[in-house]
Write a structure and sequence with these properties.
Two copies of one chain form a homodimer. In chain A, the strands form two sheets. Chain A has a five-stranded mixed sheet with strand order 3-2-1-4-5, sandwiched between helices. A five-stranded mixed sheet of chain A has the order 8-7-6-9-10. Chain A has about 290 residues and is α/β, with parallel strands linked by helices.
């Protein structure tokens, strides 16, 4: 039996897996992200313990270079994470393991995995959005992950920001009050003076968070017209948040997008990942499976 | 020689063409949009004068139903235009002319035409945005026009709106101050009390218009990562507007999207249509050419 290797390369941790899909996982490990040499070295060591792999996929934090014609294809490019700018992630793995390596963003991987096995099966376009320390979005569209000039940076769209209702200016060093600047974990902590997970259930911060997420989703609905939206990230562990987001998306679209799933079945339209916290690493496996041999 | 038929079905006028592309146009006509019966009837009459067509394409104003599995596929659905809601545009043509009919939004057609023959050749994803009486966007991505749950409605994304700088609340009946509500032709007229084309070159309305268009474009760059953006619509006849938009997009992205075409060659990135005012009807021809036989 042939197996595929997958790495969810995150800024905080790496998750490595040998599998053919969620129902056929041979091995899995996770370890903290330290230096590129050490972290990618541990991944290589893990995969060497297993039988020869048919191919590997990497679903990577970014920004990354996804242009196959570029000399820095497969690199992490300009990340603020110390030690990691200009790291040839795909090249190091290919050289050490001698297998084809598919490479994409973490969120494109997660979108592909949720489309292939998870909560967005049969839904093209499928949008995956994650909200945590940062905010990122990936999309499966016309059968493939969405790339382009670079890759989507959905966390950096500008939202309508009512400065009177919310005087907090956002923490994004590039844009201040973009989506990430207003709604990622650090924004909640800086605005309210305490981490999101310690805010009580009736704290107004949750309504505001739902509002910002819904504003972004209504823009993404108008731009991408996804058939399903999968929301990943720790913030949705908060009871009631996704429900508030759904109601607010309906309010913001205000009946304009005439689709029964938005007007009547929004709980089937805006959903949590079907693959839980394995969406990322299974995305890497899916990227490897999608390679043409 | 076999030819294809194309209709740019607009809310104001219909443009009909028999062609194989921009270099091989056999016939072309345009007439005002009146009732569906009369307008589609005139189109049918025009195409009947010409030799038998291999296929037809319709690039249509909307909202439209693009789901081939739907009983109302090929219909204009909920348009506010009197007489036109629930009109089976594709079906009427197919019945009268007995040819395969490809059907898409006007802006997806234009995106496809600009990608095939115009200013976005070789650029996938290619974004086409038009700003006139309304605002609409289409996109060619992974080789195909972008559809989804319905179709993109890029004119209805919410922009950051500084109410102190611009107290005008927007004219969109659904969303008030969405992109279309703030920046389409009627918004300029209502805000300043005179039509856009009569505003002097140094009127502050032009800087504000550039700002709103650039806000939308920077969001679309972060969401779709297009390789080129083609801007259609009468408003860009105004000298200097597209140049202001380019500068403002760079300011808003603020160096975050690390691509030479954004940082250094934005005049090659944000461009006017290569096909001029024929992008729409040639889009219809391109849709017909793309049909699988």
């Amino acid at each position: 039996m042939e197996y595929f290797g997958g790495i969810e390369a995150g800024g905080t941790k790496f998750v490595c897996m040998v599998a053919n899909g969620p129902q056929d996982i041979l091995a899995e490990t996770r370890f903290p992200t330290t230096t590129p040499q050490e972290t990618i070295g541990r991944a290589i060591e893990f995969f060497r313990q297993h039988q020869r792999l048919k191919a590997m996929g990497v679903a990577c934090f970014g920004p990354v270079d996804l242009n196959p014609a570029s000399p820095t294809y497969g690199f992490i490019t300009t990340t603020p994470k110390p030690g990691w700018p200009n790291t040839d992630v795909a090249g190091m793995l290919r050289a050490a393991l001698d297998v084809p390596v598919a490479f994409d963003t973490d969120v494109n991987g997660a979108a592909l995995a949720e489309y292939t096995w998870g909560a967005a099966q049969g839904c093209d376009p499928a949008l995956y959005l994650t909200i945590g320390t940062g905010i990122g979005g990936g999309c499966l569209i016309n059968g493939l992950p969405m790339h382009g000039l670079v890759h989507p940076e959905m966390g950096h769209i500008r939202l309508a920001h009512d400065w009177q209702a919310d005087p907090y200016g956002g923490f994004c060093p590039y844009h201040g009050d973009c989506f990430e600047g207003l709604a990622a974990g650090p924004a909640m902590k800086l605005r309210w003076g305490q981490p999101a997970e310690t805010l009580p259930a009736d704290h107004p911060g949750w309504e505001l968070e739902a509002h910002y997420i819904a504003l972004a989703l209504s823009d993404l609905v108008c731009t991408l017209s996804p058939k399903r939206i999968v929301l990943g990230g720790g913030v949705f562990e908060h009871p009631g948040l996704i429900e508030r987001v759904r109601v607010r998306v309906q309010e913001l679209l205000n009946g304009y997008v005439q689709s029964p799933v938005i007007l009547k079945h929004i709980d089937e339209y805006i959903v949590r990942p079907g693959l839980g916290n394995r969406a990322g690493v299974l995305g890497a496996i899916a990227l490897a499976l999608n390679l043409k041999f």
